[in-house]
Amino acid sequence: MGETEAMPEPASSLADVPFLRLSTDRATINEIDALIAFTVKQLGRAGFADPEVEPILARANAMLTAAAGRCDEDLPPSDAYLVRRGGQVILRCYHNPAHEMVMQGR
Ligand SMILES: [Zn+2]
Q1: How far is the CA of 47 from the centre of ligand 1 (A)?
Q2: Does residue 6 lie in a domain region?
């Protein structure tokens, strides 16, 4: 067995992601959080339909972009985006290697 990196705790709000910088207000963050939570809930349901989830996640991503979501864990700061991976919603950036955080519903 090799060494394993400790996985960070999933974040229930974008406001709790240490590497994420946002230029928006709390109400908008709450709205994006709600879209993420809805997506996570849908993914957790047996027999969920992809077409149901993708537009919601796309809307969350559009709002994240509008809020100038950036990862500042490395320089220069990188755009941050949401992606579905299996049953999880991941916040990640374009740094190499990418910084990631598993998002969870509230
Ligand atoms: Zn990054």
Answers
A1: 33
A2: no
Q: What is the pTM of this model?
A: 0.87
Give CA angle at 14 (84, 50), nearest 5°. Answer: 20
**Domain assignment of residue 56, yes or no:** yes
Question: pLDDT, tens digit, for every residue of 54-72?
Answer: 999 999 999 999 999 999 9
Q: Are 57 and 12 in contact (CB under 8 A)?
A: no
What is the extent of the structural domain holding 39?
Answer: 14-103
**Residues in the 5 Å CB sphere of ion ligand 1:** 71, 73, 78, 93, 95, 99
Task: State the distance from the centre of ligand 1 to the C-alpha of 29, rounded, in angstroms.
Answer: 19
Structural domain includes residue 36:
yes
Count of structural domains, the chain = 1
